[in-house]
């Protein structure tokens, strides 16, 4: 499990151009929560930050301004 976490961290660090520290990445990811709407999907309940904007740009998706359907969430 630790190896997988390290690989994910390295991918994030590289894709985010080394702009954020390990602690910033972990803290920001922990804050990115969603509320489930039965039959609809998920609504983001986190505050948009520089980290979330960089994450969206690096991976080509946005989840901060719309309802994310269950199928879309599975794709992420």
H/I helix tally: 4
If you average the pLDDT, what whole number results?
85
Number of domains: 1
Shape: globular
Rg over C-alpha atoms, rounded to the nearest angstrom: 13 Å
Largest beta-sheet details: 2 strands, antiparallel
Structural class: mainly alpha
- Beginning-to-end CA distance, first to last residue: 20 Å
Residues in β-strands, percent? 5-15%
Q: Strand order across the biggest sheet?
A: 1-2
Q: Count of DSSP E strands? A: 2
* Share of helical residues: 40-55%
Order of helices and strands: HHEEHH
Ranges with pLDDT <50 over ≥5 residues? none
Helix-strand layout with pairing:
Blueprint: H1 2-15, H2 22-31, E1 34-37, E2 41-44, H3 50-59, H4 70-75
Antiparallel strand pairs: 1-2
List keywords for this structure.
mainly alpha; 76 residues; two-stranded antiparallel ribbon
Question: What does this protein look like?
Answer:
The two termini are 20 Å apart. This protein has one domain. It contains four helices and two strands; from the N terminus they run ααββαα. 53% of the residues lie in helices and 11% in strands. It has helices at residues 2-15, 22-31, 50-59, 70-75; strands spanning 34-37, 41-44. The chain is mainly alpha-helical and 76 residues long. A hairpin with a 3-residue loop joins strand 1 and strand 2 (41-44).
